[in-house]
Amino acid sequence: MNILLIAPPIENKVKYFHGWQLSVSDYGSFPPLGLLYIATYLKRNMPEANLKLIDSVPEKAGYPEIEDAIRDFHPDIVGISAFTICLVDVLRVARLAKKINNNIHVCVGGPHLSVYPKQTLAQAEVDSIIIGEGEYVFLELARQAKAGKIIGGVNGLYLKADLKTSDFKKADIVDIDKLPFFDLSFIRKDIYYSTVGRQRNVITLLTSRGCPYQCTFCDVPCKTFRGRKIDNMLEEIKLRLSQGYREIFFYDDTFNITTERVIDLSQRIIDDKLIFDWSFRGRVNTLSYQMLEIAKRAGCRRIHFGIETATNEGLAEIKKGTTVEQVKDALSWCRQLRIKTIGDFIIGLPFEKSRKDVIANINRLMEFAPDYGQFNFLQPLPGTEIYESGVRQGIIDPMKWENFTMFPSADFTPPLWTQYLSRADLADLLYYAYRKYYIRPGYILNTLASLRTASELKRFVKGGLKILFKC
Fold it and tell me: Fewer CB within 10 Å, N- or C-terminus of the chain?
């Protein structure tokens, strides 16, 4: 069996507007963890299979390179990870595989399938889809292919014959401690980085899956939280340190699901005398000063907070489950402990009815003063509560995304929440927010004084020039 896994190019990624905006590489480049876990699980349970993984964007692999790889590797199965906004490229890779050899079995998985399974399965170049977490399911697909006939019959795996069903169920893994640590031999270590990282090479780890919170704008497909045991987490941390990494980004949807979880891990890191920098994505309502203090001693250098908006009324409307007071406490404690913070903000939420409202919110967000601000406009994504609300109110045409998933086109323009602000208004306000936040003499001087490495300085200057000159 030859099995080729592909994270496709993003040459035809959906654009919400044309003009200045940050690109994927401006935030960093991180390994394709979903495909890595699948490849590693296959390697453990089907060692006789030949496996190859292409991570197109950081490898700078365009369609000519992908075509060469398919021709040289002669895959029996091509597995493609799919995000809805990259669907044009997903299907272009699938068509390319079929053009080379129509007998190649093309399987598509990833977040897109949680919302649009039938539309994807109906595409001529797609033979099967996987909904949910794919490690166990993809292994079964490979075993059936090796046996000579793919018959399906596995929860989460659907074939063309299943187009008649309306009962698409996703596959979830209850005990994620049973999964092997992902194998780095499938990727190049030197092409991944974090824009805000202290080290050149940063490794991303998942210590949990799923998020139980109900934020109206969030499209996380699994709401059931499953965390790894501390011993399991420590074992992987030690492995990554032995592989030469000195900075780890815990990429969980919600790393600090409880304060106790972070305290326990931090204490074990200290007890085992492990020296490395680490950061995580977290929430302001599930931390304490005690947690932050021990995390700092264990090497925590940065926390990414989803702040979203700056009033208690707004936070309640988007069901964030946090308060302004909790935001202020979290950022204040981090400043006291010299833990860097990143605040994620959303502009153009439904309760912002004018440019004046958005600018007032941006000004409030600046008063929170995290070390870095990441701004985006509201993207009402299918499958989210805020999207369904827009459909009910007639603000969003549900057929726009539906038609795109059935007939993907590179010139597709997705719907936005334009009840009060136009697409052009939102684009202008996004640029305004970044300039307002970063082009401040005091902010620039303080940030320059806090930089410790040449790579940090290089990334800071590059980001500043992009914002200043719209490049």
Answer: C
